[in-house]
Write a structure and sequence with these properties.
This protein is an alpha+beta fold. It folds into 5 domains: 3-96, GIY-YIG endonuclease (3-Layer(aba) Sandwich); 107-208, no CATH class; 255-368, 2-Layer Sandwich (Nucleotidyltransferase, domain 5); 385-540, 2-Layer Sandwich (Nucleotidyltransferase, domain 5), CATH 3.30.420; 552-602, DNA polymerase, domain 1, CATH 1.10.150. It contains 20 helices and 20 strands. The protein has helices at residues 3-16, 42-51, 57-65, 77-91, 138-151, 163-167, 175-178, 192-206, 210-226, 230-250, 300-315, 344-370, 372-386, 439-456, 471-483, 518-551, 559-569, 572-577, 580-587, 589-602, and strands at residues 22-27, 33-39, 68-73, 98-100, 107-110, 118-121, 130-132, 259-267, 271-280, 283-293, 321-324, 336-338, 395-404, 407-417, 420-421, 427-430, 464-468, 491-496, 501-504, 507-511. Strands 13, 14, 15, 16, 17, 18, 19 and 20 form an 8-stranded mixed β-sheet that branches. A 6-stranded mixed β-sheet has the order 4-10-9-8-11-12, sandwiched between helices. A 3-stranded antiparallel β-sheet has the order 2-1-3.
Length: 603
Amino acid sequence: MGNEDRLRKIKIILKTLPDKPGVYKHIDSEGQILYVGKAKNLKKRVSSYFSKKHSEERLRMLVRRVENVEIIITNTEFDALLLENTLIKKFQPWYNINLKDGKTYPWICIKKERFPRVFSTRNRIEDGSEYFGPYPSSRMLRTLLELIGQLYSFRTCSLSLSESSIHGGKHKVCLEYHMGNCKGPCEDKQSEKSYNQDIKSVRRLLKGELKAIRKNLHEDMMLHSQKSQFELAHQFKERLEHLKKYQSKSAVLNPAFGEIDLYSVVDDAEYGYVNFMMIREGSLVHSFTLELKKKMQEKPEELLQLAIPEIRILFKSEAKLILLSHSVEYELPGIKFQVPIRGDKVSAIQMSLRNAKAYRIERLKNIQIVDPDRHTNRIMAQMKHDLRMPCEPRHIECFDNSNIQGEFPVSACVVFRDGKPSRNEYRHFNIKTVIGADDYASMEEVVYRRYRRILEESGPLPNLVVIDGGKGQLSSAIKALNDLELSSKISIVGIAKRLEEIYFPNDSIPLYIDKRSESLKILQQARNEAHRFGITFHRKKRSKSSIKSKLDAVKGIGPSTQKVLLSSFKSIARLKKSDLNSIESLIGVAKAKLIWSWIKQEA
């Protein structure tokens, strides 16, 4: 099908689309699903793909490949969200975000069997058993299992406890019974009704319904106390204390808030990380982070919109209040979305954000070790995004000037390849045309000399030039690039030390990058390397000047002899500490006597 026929077909499809919520599928010429999306209004959303120019290259490529559009109408936008999620998982379209559901994390299982066992597992088996989780934090999992063991007694054996085998005396109680960890249902020492009542309480605990559990434990304690069963009453009192201790450790919000879900998101150029926290009666019940692979530069709000229905289904959450780090555009029936701006709720969202960031850092460290090329590619893509560059800064050059009150002015240029120093390409410069401490003119001279030579030698130009300084130094460097007609071929920024401000050409307002971002760290490393390299050269030049100026006073010692002494002793102090024989071996007996006589006079 030609492009004109393709566009004609799509125009007809757009005219027939309804103004209703639903899901749409972009399909290519071979019938492959390229992209699945949801819409509050199918006609407006799908038409937007073909009615305007798109800045993202991937989006332009997607639109060029679309041959057909299929839709599924739903009753509500929330239904469309759920359906979109299901279809993405089923078809894994090329242009959709990849979902990673954390199947390797452990769960707490209530086994479907007579006298159910309660245990942790990483394998979900579709046998009717109940699974609660997943739990990315093994500490939280152990804490919950420990609390369950303190409150209730369940069997750990895998015996098939049928009614006939129990009444037939087939089983005998084990050590767990004698240790008080099991009440012996295998010998009918605990009824199935009593056992299942405890299992019901465990379900409530895992769902975060701590208030109901506290109420039941308190009622049982008072009942046994009224019957003068003080030992049993004390046992229930201890259980209440265990529960209160657990709740005080995990409390993050005022218990009066009831059921709340928290969602926060952090992202970089490639991935988004959505952290979910289930809060029940002020206590943290679950914490989970979902990793999303970006396909078309999705914004944080879009990542949240996709993750919320996925996570709500995964954790079977029915919370009516959802706190968010970013606002979302859709509505869920009976659900209130809120981006808090003050109080305890803000603290809770900040805690969720910290967890998302920690998860991201952990993942990035693993990638750096396992796949360093992917790590480099990700950083380069992030720098391109942060610094608004047309290409990735694979080749960076950074300049810094050094002088003391205008004396011995020098400049340094350091080179970074793929975010790492390329020390054999470092260069230093003596300032030739500038008199005195004129940092701006010195910067202009050095940048001009550096890239004039590269042009003369047909060498590779950098993707990014970094200037150590603010607007003044940056303007001088831009002038040099303009004189060489390179301003449109090289990206350039200035980095000011005081607040780590990033300045761009023709923009008086600086950019402030996150202090912990890798983009800023590479710029800082380049700046620090240029400063170190420049200072080292400056000190060496100053030292040479010092020894030469003092030896100029010795009659009969010319520049060539001074150079030999400088190469060997490096400084006047070391020369004065040497002996006559060492000096004679370098410059001969006659000149050595002159130097030795001068040293004695200086002593």
